[in-house]
Amino acid sequence: MSVTGVARSNDSDLDMTNPSIPSLPVTLADVRAAAARIKGAVVHTPCLRSETLSRIAKADVWIKFENLQFTASFKERGALNTLLQLSDEERRRGVIAMSAGNHAQGVAYHAGRLGIPATIVMPSFTPNTKVKHTRGHGARVVLIGDTLAEAAAEAHRLADAEKLVFVHPYDDPRIIAGQGTIALEMLADVPELDTLVVPVGGGGMLAGCAVAACGLRPDMMVVGVESAGYSAMRQLLAGEPVTVGGDTIAEGIAVRDIGRTPLAIARALVDRVLAVDEVAIEHAIALFLEVEKTVAEGAGAAGLAALLAHPEVFAGRKVGLILCGGNIDTRLLASVLLRGLVRDGRIVRLRLMIPDLPGQLARVAGLIGGAGGNIVEVQHQRLFGSVVAKSTELDVTVESRDRDHARELVTALQAEGFTVRVLEGADA
Q1: Cβ contact 75:102 at 8 Å
Q2: Which DSSP category does 41 fall into?
Q3: How confident is the model at residue 44 (pLDDT cuts 50, 70, 90)?
Q4: How confident is the model at residue 302 (pLDDT cuts 50, 70, 90)?
Q5: DSSP calls for 126-152
Q6: Closest CA to 319 of 409, 193, 214, 150
Q7: pLDDT above 50 (res 10)
Q8: 298 to each of 83, 127, 182, 293, how far by Cα in Å?
């Protein structure tokens, strides 16, 4: 089971009826101060109800569109809140940050606006679109390391060597307070929300939103969501050793080392953390595009993935999802969408054994077209495998309306005497 229940702290010094939650390193007052500080320089993004997703999830689903920030990510909030609190001397020296992309863009963009020199260290696997945009904001970009930890080590080395101010992506009260302004806006716009679903990488957004939401609404259920391969927060809260790794489409939350400050806040305020697999995240990306006509990166889609993968947690509740970013490589997005079509049976790959005679290919094409299918790709195989001398193995990739229609295509071919095997899609 990928659900971890987390009991909120019962410490006597934590008074959940006190909106400032003074026992924690970040308070509601800090979040409110951050909101006033960054007002006008970041977008107060819309929080809108999704009729379709509400129907699918059997919950009242509201989406906070943080992909509409200028850099297409929530990370601007914490970055700007931190930069605005630097001293004049720190501004002159310049700042440095480590990030797989969104924190990088947030720091680079607002540092450029404020005239602060910025250096960004990014791991080598960072998507090209994020590297390009970070450089476009005027920052010096250093690509190094195969992991976030390696990139972080280089960032700290450069900070010491060049006397730069390190802007941490998540383990800084100023960052956490800035990210918490998301929940502040959500509850101002939709006060009836009773559940908040927050993607988790290092934990800064989860911590900030938990402080704001629970400070305003002590009964709020706060749920964190991680990629299954990088469920460090879930493991820590469960008292398990942390084991992470592997490729994930949600590289923005592929974090091994949870921040100490976010972890302390999560222990006190977060109800549970869910882990979602790659298929669920890909499905959520596709749904955001098809249903809401909006682009979500893997991390941004994690909340919706959890909603769909764990309906029992959210059924009947008023759920706020944070679509935290939309910076996904276009080639990767295209791949996700096509893979989704295959899983839905809307693209199928069929293998037919046909006589090696003139007109047979045209006959197959006519049958598929007559049944409403659209041929995307055709490949003949005469030489290898078990193909007999007077036969041809034919692989056909076909667009169909849905899984049932794909079955109809297969039936139409079989009715004409063709042996058909579904290789991908539909009932493969």
Answers
A1: yes
A2: T
A3: very high
A4: very high
A5: S-HHHHHHHHHTT-EEEE--SSHHHHH
A6: 193
A7: no
A8: 27, 12, 19, 16
Annotate 227-262 with b (16+ C-beta within 10 A) or e (fewer): bbbbbbbbbbbeeeeeebeeebbbbbbbbeebbebb
Phi-psi region of 426 (alpha: psi -120 to 50; beta: other; left: phi over 0): left
pLDDT digits (tens, 9 = 90+) for 148-197: 778 889 999 999 999 999 999 999 999 999 999 999 999 999 999 999 99
d(CA 83, CA 87) in angstroms, rounded, equals 9
274 SS3 class: strand
Confidence of residue 388 (pLDDT cuts 50, 70, 90): low
Phi and psi dihedrals of 390, rounded to 5?
-100, 20
Closest CA to 130 of 325, 261, 321: 325
Q: Give the domains, in start order, of the chain with CATH numbers.
A: 3-74+198-339 (3.40.50.1100), 76-166 (3.40.50.1100), 344-424 (3.30.70.260)
- Contact partners, residue 1, CB within 8 Å, separation at least 6: none
Cα–Cα distance measured from residue 109 to residue 86, given in angstroms and rounded to the nearest whole number? 16
The string of pLDDT tens digits covering residues 335-366 is 999 999 999 889 999 999 888 888 989 999 99
Rounded distance between C-alpha atoms, residue 279 and residue 175, angstroms? 31
Tokens representing 334 are: 């295209």
